Amino acid sequence: MPMICPKCQTENKDDSKFCSNCAAPLWPIVGAGPEGASVTRTLETPLHILKAGALIAGKYRIFEEIGAGGMGVVYKAEDIKLKRSVALKFLPPNLMDSPDLKERFLIEAQAAAALSHPNICVIHEIGESEGRPYIAMEYVEGETLRDRVRKGSLEPGEAVDIVNQVASGLAEAHGKGIIHRDVKSANIMVTAKGQAKVMDFGLAKLRGGSSLTRTQTTLGTVAYMSPEQARGEELDQRTDIWSLGVVLYELLSGKLPFKGDHDQTVIHSILHKPPKPPSKVRPDLPSGLDEIVFKSLVKNTGNRYQSMEEVRGDLAAVAEGLRPLKARLPRTFLGIRMALIYSALALALALFIGLDVGGLRSRIFGGEGRGERAITLAVLPFINDSPDQENTYFINGVMEEILSNLQKIKALRVISRTSVEQYRDRKKPVREIAEELDVKYIVEGSGQKYGNAFRLRMQLIMAEHESHLWGESFQQNINDVKDIFYVQIRIAESVAGALKAVIAPEEKRLIEKVPTADQMAYDSYLRGNFYMNGASPDDVATALHYFEEARNRDPRFALAYVGISGVWLFRQQLGWAAPEEAGPKIVEAVERALELDSTLADVHSAVASMKVYGEFDLEGGEAALKKALEINPNHAQAHADYSHLLNMLGRTDEAMENIELALRLDPHNPAIKWWYAQDLLYARRYDEAISVSRDIYEKNPSMNNVLDCIYHASHVTGRYDQAFEAIKLLYSKELADLDHVFDRFSELGYAGTLSLEADTLLAQAGSRYIAPTFLYDLYTFAGNKERALDEMEKAYEVRDPNILYIGRPSYAILRDELRYQELLRKLKLPIGDKKWERAL
């Protein structure tokens, strides 16, 4: 039976320990004392103490107690037969309160005893003395990390080394199907020689096995507990990754990421709040450690590190001074990068209509307007040659601004940031990279930063012959942020000059514009963009923190407001925030950005988003986007957006021209490819839409939105089993507690299951926000026209931006309904017999 929260009445799984909504305890917390939340103990009942000299099992003589916690008491003892010191741990009696549990414990402890790794404390024996189960293990001379960190945070290099050792040991265990479940600093010993040993593997769990207990026991200390562990869900190796992330945070900062006066407060933070970046506690941390910590502490297991090998790879990268690879999320430098926010989930609408496609095409790809063909180039990620690798983030920011400045020059076609990022490691020759990106020239660079001195070496290469056309070294003392922008401006102008690309006076003014005079505000803005690309709730919350920090440091920094508006638009699009909550925040941020700086393409792009998504003003959105594209014709996402809106307006041919432009500007961006799949859906090229979507999803499994295209295309073509599998996967990730509905598919069939799913979500809408989009999709596919139209009208009333998608061919069943046609009229979407005939 589900556990009902006594505080908020939310239903939880029957083995949950805390409420998934408000974090209230669903069972009495044992041992909560005046010091508040549990930090180093595991919740359980205490054991009585053994006296020194006591003989256990006829072969272990007790010396002294060396540790105690909720999961037992540990003694130093002598193995009188083998003449060696051992650590003897006695487990609480309630772990053995049934024969089944006792057998389970023995099986799992024996599996753990089979582990052999230098970073795992060896288990010698599992036994029983006078009915009391014990584990005899290697006695490790040293101190726990918990004791070490009480003296102060560790040096970054030492912390990385220790955590890497621990990850190595845990990887060995995970490879044999064993999950620790109680990783914490108190369970990690470090010898005098610096060797780390993971303790307490006797409490581990075999993957796929049942829980050791069904009593009021939480195997895992509250402060280190993963969200899934707190909710009582099935665990895998990713729970250990979370806990190790907490340990890393603790070693680096001397603090725990999730704190509170009571266990309930800690659990609420774990379930709902992002941690403060370690670098905010300790600003001298090397670049990349923040990203590793945050990637480990992602609340959604699908977006967390998936294995300890991934964690170790990024730790090694930081140790070598490189940016973490797995923690790094792809990002694009398209206008404000806010465009990627929308494309990451592909639920945003097109932002403009009626542009002169031919005119834009000629300006980007050559012909009219300039009297010469556009010059094609890519700016590869810069190399950080600084001895202090903290400056990697700075060097990356410089590269992005140079790329952005080059994009403003209409004589150039510049590949977007997302598509060049994969070439950071330079594993391919320049000629091959250029061929894949379809460009003629490559820009490379490397930078060094020593204190306030900054030096950047640049070169321009003609890819076909790999010949160097231009090279220069730029050196600048940085006294304020304007000095950074000065270097970036000079480089962009020098590259354009070497390519003989004419820079118009208006373009020159845009390139030389300094967006903020506050260096810290600029840095926070760049960090906000980085996390925004993650697209998970945790990443988005962290991005908002940085954007607001940038705004607070410089209240006149227009791009910070654009970033804030993008966060709230993103949340609204995904149904994470209701329009009445997100709408006012979007309007406030966008209007302030426009007031501060009307010369930025990103600001006009944000205005267009507000007009279309918030006000359903397509003409206003068109005008704003025309202005944005006039400023930056290299805006790949804008062309993708335009293709999307053209499809909604029934202009399929023009739509395909625009998406092809977008793909040329950003060929490796999965979000642009996703837009292409949507365009194929509108064009009734269903098999192609499914094929492209599957390819995207296989390579980017966090892009749940791709499933939307698969189930729409599958539904229209009558492949209902395939459509149901896509719906099931999408809704399982986006909306919880629907498994009991999906399990009835064989009984109810396709339409019946979707109808029940919709009814179930509708019943939940009173206690939480359920986007009408989810409901009218399901009701439409189930053939319930009246319910579908009810939810569409509701979506229109609450200004759900996804209502603008109702012209897709998968809604053709509603084409003759007057209520449906009235909605199309209100939205200024086309109604026409020919269109409906094609949709059949």
Distance between the termini: 46 Å
CATH architecture of the domain at 338-514: 3-Layer(aba) Sandwich
Poorly predicted regions are 27-47, 207-219, 328-373, 833-840
Q: Give me the side-by-side strand order of the main sheet.
A: 3-4-5-6-8-7
Radius of gyration: 29 Å
Give the fraction of residues assigned to helices.
40-55%
Classify the beta-strand content into a percent band. Answer: 5-15%
CATH domain class of the domain at 338-514: Alpha Beta
Oligomer: single chain
What is the CATH third-level topology name of the domain at 338-514?
A: Rossmann fold
Shape: globular
Major beta-sheet overview: 6 strands, antiparallel
Give the full name of the CATH homologous superfamily of the domain at 338-514.
ABC-type transport auxiliary lipoprotein component
Structural class: alpha+beta
Number of strands: 19
Mean residue pLDDT: 78
How many DSSP helices? Answer: 34
What would your notes on this structure say?
48% of the residues lie in helices and 12% in strands. It is built from 34 helices and 19 strands. Strand 17 and strand 18 form a beta hairpin. It is an alpha+beta fold. Among the domains are: 84 residues, Phosphorylase Kinase, domain 1; 173 residues, Transferase(Phosphotransferase), domain 1, CATH 1.10.510.10; 177 residues, Rossmann fold, CATH 3.40.50. The longest helix has 20 residues. Helix 17 packs parallel to helix 19. It starts with a strand and ends with a helix. The chain has a 6-stranded antiparallel sheet with strand order 3-4-5-6-8-7. Strands 14, 15, 16, 17, 18 and 19 form a 6-stranded mixed sheet that branches. The protein has a 3-stranded antiparallel sheet with strand order 9-11-12. The protein is globular and about 85 Å long.
